[in-house]
Amino acid sequence: MNENKPGILIKFPIFIDTMKKIAVSFLLIFVFTIISLSQSVPLRIIMIGAHPDDCDLGGGGTAILLSSMGHAVKFVSVTNGDAGHQTQGGGALAKRRIGEAQEAGKRFGVTYDVLDNHDGELTPTLDVRLQIIRKIRDWNADLVIAPRPNDYHPDHRYTGVLVQDAAYMVAVPNVAPDTKPLKKNPIFLYFQDRFQKPNPFRPDIAIDITSVFDKKIYAIAAHESQFFEWLPWIGGYLSEVPAGEKERLAWLAKQRSRPINQETSKSLEKWYGIAKASEVKNVEAFEICEYGSQPNEADIRRLFPMLK
Question: What confidence score (pLDDT) does residue 36 get?
Answer without folding.
Answer: 45
